[in-house]
Structure formats: C-alpha cells, structure tokens
Q: What sequence folds into this?
C-alpha cells in the first residue's frame, strides 16, 4: 500500500492539460521496479543486438554503484523501485495518422497535433508510453537521405551508425541518471542529416507520460554531417498524477564540420514530475550548436545543456528560460567547454520565480590551455515576482588559457513598481500588466522559438500570472 | 632563532602558550581547542575547499611563541580619549576586561571554522584596536610585522572593535623571507558598531614558502560604513575566507581586493556577503593580475535573506591573465531569498590584455614590458581609486611596484 | 633497446581484457592487454578530472575511466568518448618472456 504522497495535495486543479484518458489500455505493462532481469527483458522485447544488451547491463551496474548527486534539487522522494520501466501501447511504428489507434489519436487530438501536422511539420515521431507509435517522414526528406526515426527503429536499421556514435558524447557512467537511461532507454528520436543537406522545416516530436508511476527514458541521437543543418523541436505536456513521475532523458548531438544544429525544448510537465536530463553536443570545426531550453513545469528540473567545442571556430549557444511557480524548483543552465582555439560561446539565461518557487542557474565555462582566441559571454537575469520566491546563480568558470575574453554578468530584480504603475494606468489590471512585463523580460529568448511555441509560452505565462495575482 | 613550541598546536603547546595568562583567557583558549578537536578538517567535498588541497600544508613547524611585535604608534591624545592600539597580548594584560568582552565570541562560516578555531585557541600575536563611542581617529593606524626566517606555525588573531559613531583607518602589513615553509594562519574579528566607520587594509607580502590560510569576519552594524581591502602579493599558497555580515539596517560595506601573483602561486579566496538587514549595501570588487604559472580562484556568495528588504549588492571579480600558463576560476554566486531588492548582480571576467590597448601603449614609445605594467596599473585603478587614505594607497602601490612599476614611470 | 623499461608487473598477472596501473621509470602508466592478446600502454591520467585510469575497465581497445565513463584508445591515446577532450600519450609495449616492456622514447 503506497504511502500518501504529499505531492498529491499540491497538483494544481486549474492545470489546463490536467487530464488522462480513462479508456487507455497499457499493453506489455511490466511490473514496477528495476533489476537486471528488467533490463534484459527490455532488450529482449526490442530484439536488440547483443552489444546493446551488454551496454545496458553495464550501465545498470554503474547505476547501482553510483550514489545520487548531493547538489542541485531535492531528489529524496524518488523511489526507483516504484516506477514502471517499460510500457508500450502498440507493437510497431506506423506511418500515417489514420493507422494510429483510436485512444491514442484522441490523446493527440487534445494536444492539437492535427493542426500542427497541416503545415509546418516535416515528420513527427509521436511517443506514447515509451514507444514510437506514429511517425511520418515526408517524401522530400527521404529523397535527401535524411533519416528521422524512433531510436529503437534507428538502432535496428542503422546499427553501424549507432555503434559509432551511441554513448560517445554521454557515456553510460557519466552520471547516475545517464547510467539509468542507458540501461532502460526506450524511444526518442534518431536523426541523421547527410552532408550539405539543409532541413528547412523544424523536425518535431511530442511525447507524454501517461501511466501511473511511468518513467520516461527516451534516448535521442542526432548526427548532422558536414555542412548540413537541422532544427529539432520537442515540446511536451503530461497529465497530472498523484505519485511522482520521473523523466530522465539523454540527448547526444554530433555537429560535424561546418554543420549547424538547433535543439529547442519547451517542457511543461505537471508538478509531480522529476525532470532530470543529460543533454550534450559536440561541435567540430566551424560548426554551430544552439540549445533553446524552456523549463516551465515539473516539480524539479535539473538540466544543463552542454556544448563541447572541439574544432576551431566552433560556436555554441544556450538560450534558457526557467519559470518556477509555487513548490517548483528549476535548476537549469548551460555548460560550454572550449577545447579548440578561436571558439566562441554565448549563454543567456532568463529565470522567473513566483509564489514559493525557486530558480537556480548553474553553469560552467571551461577553457582548456591552448584554446587561444576564445571568447565567451554569459548573461543571467532573474526576476523574482513574490516575496517568498527564491533565485540562485552558480556560475563556474575554469579559465586556463590567457589569450581569451571570458565574461559573466548576472542581475536579480523584481518587477519595478513604476513599470507596473505605468501599465496599469493604461487600463490593464495587475495580472495583465505583470504578464506583459514578464513577457518582455523573456522576449529575447521567446523570439527564437517556432511561432506556435512562442504563442503557447505567452499563454502559459498568462496562466501563471493569473494564478499568482488576485 | 625564533622560539617555537615542539608542535604546531596541541594540548601541550596550548598549555605553554597559556602560561601566565588570566584564567578567563586560559578557559577561552581551551574552549576553542575543544571545538577545534570536535570539528573535522576541511574536505574537498566542501565547495570552499574544492580548489585548494591541504595535503602539503606544513604542519610540523612548531608554534611561534615569541613573534616579533609590530610598533603600535598612537597619538597620546587619542590614547587619553580611550583609543587602544596595541598587540593583543599587551591588551590582555592592560585592558583585560575590555578584551574579554569582545574576544572569541563569534563563530564564522562552517568552511572557515577549523582555522578560525585554531587561531582563537593558539594565537601568540595579532593586533587589538578599540575605538570608543564618538571618537574619530584621523590618519591611518599601522601595524607592520616582519616575521623571521625559519619553519614554524604562526596563527595571529587581530581584534578590531569600533563603538557607536567611532571611526578609524587601520593597515596591517605582514612580510617574511622567501625559502621557508611556514603555516601562517592569521585571522581577524572586526566588529563595527552603530554608525561607525572603518577602513581596514591587509597587505600580505609573505615569502614564497608560506601557506597563508586566513579568515576574516566582519560584522557591520546599523548605518555603519566599512571598507576592507586585501592586497595579496606574497606567499606560495594563499587561502582566505571572508565572512561579512550586514546585521543592522542601512549599513554599507565594500570589499576590495588586489591580487598580483606570479611564479607558481595559487590564490584562493572565498567570501560570503550575508545581507540580513534591510536597506543595506554590499559591493565586492576583486581584481587579479596573474603572471607566469599562477592561478587565482574566487568563490563568492552573496546571500540576501528574506527579511532584508531594499538591499543593494554587486559582486565583481575580474582576472587579467598575463601569461599562457596563468589560470583563473571566478565563481560569483547569488542566493537571493526575497524579491524586494533595489539592485543585485554580479560579474566575472577572465582574459588577456586587450590587444588594442597594448598596441596603443606601445605605439606611444613604451616597451612591451612598460606597456604591460601601465595597463595592469590601469586595471587596478578601480580598486586603488577607492582607497581613501593616501599613505595606505602609497604603501600598497609600493608593494605592487615589482609587478606594475613605480608610479613615477607613468609620469614620464 | 635502451628505451624499453620493464613494468613492475608480470604479463601473466594481467588478465586479457583488463588494465592495471604500473609505475615505469617514474611515470604512472595504464597498461593492459585486449581479449585477443594485444598489449598497449597509455599515461595513467584521465584528462577530464586528473584521476587514474588504471582502475578502469578495458572494453575492446578502449580504456574506460571509472569515474565518468570517458574512453581512451589503449594504443593511440585518442579520446573515444567524452567528457575528456585532451588525448593522452601512448607508448608501444612488447613482451620479453613474462616481462612487460614499455618503450618510453
């Protein structure tokens, strides 16, 4: 008999996306908890090659041996044995919307996927309970040789590429959560863009957690070959549950010489989800890597998108927004490692805390010796909207090369009373005025989002401000 | 030959040090020693100790029992008004009750406690400055100590107390010869009362074998105004912890630092600016010029408590890297627990001299070395300009001269 | 060859598919043999955190650092997996009977 979870009382009833489908059936539902047998079973069900099974088992060994991190947020309530590690709703990926089972389509209908499908999408790998069930690659992309599959299918069809890159950016033993993901990963996206190919429209994926105590362990691998470019967007919502959910994804990205990748995430998990993600990219000569990271939901997010600049003139950017309402903790930021000369980086972080929420910026700029001519600028601004909210900034810098220019600036402030007064004197109420000011605060990052996300972001801020004021 | 105890610090040494001291002081030392023994030695698990390893700290040098005394010059008129400026041991003898009321009464941040405690248990030198209410001391008070050659442990404690509306300027300067392994664990406990004003400068020119493990605790009372300056020029390894508390409403503090390091020096500062009172201001500016294979790390925390409204704080750490092997790790941290703030921010930079600046200076006929010295002097100006006392400013610039040249070089 | 130094450990003491730390002529090296019997040696330092590699695992040709999973090629010292980015020096190894000889030139 599970103990009552204090998170239950705190899941906001006004949560817009807070529902789950009562008719939903989960097939292949395994028992809760993690063990060697569960890891072997996952690999067996997927029919994986032996080397992947061995890698999963090795990762499980590392997961067991490593202690939990002692910094960051409060992870004391996570019970790894109280989670289902693999659930699938259908047995194979389908390639047309009409083939998707009815109750899943209903879920996606409510999320608005058909509208999105109309114009802007090149293809969608929709994830439902860890399995890629819907996926559609447009003909022109196929012709260009772009591969966009669910990770399971990618492994089956392109094992050589997997063997070459999988686990080279984030090895199994990098940290405890990466070890867990490497052991039980399921789903996620696999993208390969051939040399010189530019994918004009953003590739997108949606996924959601939809089983009591479901952990999400998707694994994404993106390889942009020389001179190519691609933009990948993930946005997700999850229904409200009364027991803790764990989302522990791993994203590895390889940006080869002269290529360009942007990875955009808007995360709006319900407030009982632990979102502990490891995201890392390597950028070679003249390559560009951009992380656009929006953290709005979850009970605790710990996520520090990283870029290793391994070739000359590589450039990395992290644009991060974090919003923490009551009882939320967003512990986010970015890391850039300069490991070649004349590399540049920019980290811009905007965080907002309200109610009893807490935002923490945690980042690292590291410059190895010999990386002359490197430049980096980090700019963190925090807005604290209420008296009980809290904001922290922990910017680390390890600079071991003299011929560089590295700078970091941060400010913490509140909404100015004069600003508020001015807007209210124009006829807005306090909630509207605050929302406008907050939207202005995050505008430099929001303008980098695809339009439908920008709209959703502004709407979400509005919702948060209404909850906060009056 | 300096007179040393057999060991750096243990029960027997403490016994020796306490001989002839008043009972209250013997008890105080014993009490702090008990706490030292109960407190674990720092570990790299603590954030403040991640960047400096204490493995090679010279712990075998016996405690220095007869440290050289600085000259404590004080205008007799001020002495008549109750100002006390002497070494701490003399103050214990001549103003026991006053010292007893203020000595060893404060804890400091957890990371510094092992060294704070050792100094309070085993101090054999250090200064005492007491300024009674309403007394203004014009002109700087200077305590200059030259330590002898030898391998020893020296843990002086300085106690500075300014009563309501008092004001004073104090410079403590310490030097020692190169080539000797010394553990120098100087600490300072500074208490500035309501409306008082203090300028406190520390000039460190210790020898290259010295491990300087210091702790400074400063408490700023209501409407008080305090500026501290640490000029770090010597030592082999320098690890200093600063604990600054704005406990009263409306106080102002500035923490200034000038670091000029070369060879294989390692300098590691951690600071905590704790804003507990409303309408307080606390700014920190630490500037480092790093030559050869030197390395400077800085871990500074600005903490604004929920009850501290309308505060203003800025933390700045800027590092000029002057050679390929020099390195810097500035980590300014903010922990803000209220939104009712006037101003709050921090900034950190690390990098080389702007090539355009360097080109400009050299195109005026300066040699490469002279151009660099001039630019570093210009870099330090933001702190130097904030040193109110001309004599102290001159002393600091003189100490920096080997790095940045003499001021008359610029005039040419 | 005067550049070859004997490692303190005997070849028969190092199982195939493992590495050990040895000190050769004052240098700390990570030495081992692959499952198919090829011997290699690299500097015993992970360039990510400065710790030892010798207590890590050997996976094919890759020495895996025990602390964060970084990998180095046992024969070339090249980085095969992050988080390290700087390669390590590699040294040729041959066997002289049961003695492991490392060429430090």
A:
């Amino acid at each position: 008999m599970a103990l009552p979870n204090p998170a239950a009382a705190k899941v906001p009833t006004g949560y817009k996306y807070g529902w789950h489908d009562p008719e939903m059936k989960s097939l292949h539902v395994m028992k809760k908890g993690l063990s060697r047998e569960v890891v072997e079973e996952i690999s067996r069900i997927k029919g994986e090659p032996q080397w992947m099974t061995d890698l999963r088992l090795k990762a499980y060994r590392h997961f067991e041996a490593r202690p939990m991190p002692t910094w960051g947020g409060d992870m004391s309530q996570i019970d790894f044995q109280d989670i289902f590690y693999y659930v699938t709703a259908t047995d194979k990926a389908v390639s047309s919307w009409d083939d998707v089972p009815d109750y899943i389509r209903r879920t996606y209908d409510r999320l608005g996927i058909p509208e999105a499908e109309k114009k802007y999408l090149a293809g969608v790998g929709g994830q439902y309970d860890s399995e890629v069930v819907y996926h559609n690659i447009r003909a022109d992309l196929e012709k260009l040789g772009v591969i966009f599959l669910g990770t399971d299918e990618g492994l089956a069809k392109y094992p050589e590429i997997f063997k070459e890159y999988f686990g080279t950016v984030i090895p199994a033993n990098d940290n405890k959560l990466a070890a867990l993901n490497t052991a039980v990963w399921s789903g996620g996206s696999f993208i390969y863009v051939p040399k010189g190919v530019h994918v004009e429209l953003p590739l997108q994926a949606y996924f959601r957690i939809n089983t009591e105590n479901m952990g999400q362990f998707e694994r994404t691998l993106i390889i942009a070959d020389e001179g190519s470019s691609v933009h990948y967007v993930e946005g997700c919502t999850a229904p409200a549950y009364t027991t803790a959910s764990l989302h522990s994804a791993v994203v590895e990205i390889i940006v080869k010489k002269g290529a360009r990748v942007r990875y955009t995430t808007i995360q709006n998990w319900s407030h009982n989800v632990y979102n502990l993600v490891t995201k890392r990219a390597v950028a070679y000569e003249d390559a560009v890597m951009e992380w656009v990271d929006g953290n709005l939901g979850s009970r605790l997010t710990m996520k520090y998108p990283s870029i290793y600049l391994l070739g000359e003139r590589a450039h990395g950017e992290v644009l991060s927004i974090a919003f923490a309402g009551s009882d939320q903790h967003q512990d986010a930021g970015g890391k850039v490692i300069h490991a070649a000369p004349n590399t540049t980086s920019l980290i811009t972080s905007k965080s907002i805390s309200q109610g009893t929420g807490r935002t923490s910026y945690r980042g690292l700029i590291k410059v190895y010796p010999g990386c002359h001519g490197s430049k980096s600028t980090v700019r963190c601004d925090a807005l604290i909207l209420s008296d009980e909210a809290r904001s922290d900034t922990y910017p680390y810098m390890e600079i071991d090369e003299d011929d560089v220019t590295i700078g970091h600036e941060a400010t913490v402030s509140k909404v100015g009373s004069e600003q508020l007064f001015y807007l209210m004197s124009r006829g807005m109420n306090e909630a509207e005025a605050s929302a406008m000011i907050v939207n202005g605060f995050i505008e430099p990052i929001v303008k980098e989002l695809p339009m439908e996300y920008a709209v959703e972001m502004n709407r979400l801020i509005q919702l948060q401000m209404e909850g906060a004021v009056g | 030959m300096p007179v040393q105890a057999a060991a750096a610090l243990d029960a027997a040494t403490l016994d020796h040090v306490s001989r002839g001291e008043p009972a209250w002081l013997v008890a105080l030392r014993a009490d702090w020693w008990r706490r030292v023994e109960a407190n674990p030695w720092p570990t790299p698990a603590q954030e403040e100790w991640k960047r400096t390893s204490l493995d090679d700290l010279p712990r075998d040098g016996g405690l220095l029992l007869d440290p050289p005394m600085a000259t404590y010059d004080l205008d007799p008129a001020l002495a008549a008004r109750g100002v006390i400026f002497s070494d701490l041991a003399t103050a214990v003898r001549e103003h026991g009750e006053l010292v007893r009321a203020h000595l060893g009464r404060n804890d400091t941040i957890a990371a510094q406690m092992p060294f704070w405690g050792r100094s309070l248990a085993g101090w054999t030198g250090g200064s005492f400055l007491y300024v009674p209410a309403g007394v203004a001391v014009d002109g700087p008070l200077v305590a200059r100590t030259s330590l002898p050659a030898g391998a020893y442990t020296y843990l002086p404690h300085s106690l500075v107390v300014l009563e309501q509306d008092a004001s004073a300027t104090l410079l403590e300067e310490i030097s020692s010869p190169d080539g000797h392994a010394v553990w120098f664990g100087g600490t300072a406990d500074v208490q500035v009362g309501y409306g008082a004003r203090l300028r406190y400068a520390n000039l460190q020119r210790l020898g290259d074998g010295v491990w300087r493990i210091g702790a400074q605790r400063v408490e700023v009372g209501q409407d008080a105004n305090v500026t501290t300056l640490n000029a770090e020029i010597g030592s082999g390894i320098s690890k200093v912890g600063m604990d600054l508390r704005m406990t009263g409403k409306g106080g102002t503090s500035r923490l200034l630092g000038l670091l000029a390091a070369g060879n294989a020096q390692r300098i590691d500062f951690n600071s905590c600016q704790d804003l507990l009172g409303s309408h307080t201001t606390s700014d920190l500016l630490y500037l480092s010029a790093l030559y050869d294979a030197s390395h400077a790390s800085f871990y500074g925390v600005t903490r604004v408590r929920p009850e501290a409204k309308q505060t203003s704080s800025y933390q700045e750490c800027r590092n000029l890297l002057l050679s390929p092997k020099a390195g810097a790790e500035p980590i300014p941290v903010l922990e803000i627990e209220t939104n009712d703030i006037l101003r709050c921010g921090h900034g950190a930079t690390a990098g080389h001299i702007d090539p355009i600046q360097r080109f400009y200076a050299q195109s005026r006929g300066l040699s490469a070395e002279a151009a660099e010295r001039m630019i570093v002097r210009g870099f330090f100006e933001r702190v130097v300009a904030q040193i109110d006392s001309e004599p102290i400013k001159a002393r600091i610039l003189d100490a920096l001269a080997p790095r940045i040249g003499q001021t008359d070089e610029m005039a040419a | 060859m005067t550049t070859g130094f004997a490692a303190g450990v005997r070849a028969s003491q190092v199982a195939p598919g493992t590495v050990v730390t040895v000190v050769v002529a004052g240098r700390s090296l990570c030495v081992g043999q692959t499952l198919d019997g090829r011997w290699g040696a690299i500097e015993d330092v992970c360039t990510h955190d400065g710790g030892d590699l010798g207590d890590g695992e050997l996976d094919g040709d890759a020495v895996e650092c025990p602390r964060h999973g970084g990998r180095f090629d046992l024969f070339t010292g090249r980085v095969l997996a992050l988080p390290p980015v700087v390669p390590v020096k590699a040294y040729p190894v041959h066997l002289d009977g049961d003695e492991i000889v490392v060429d430090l030139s």
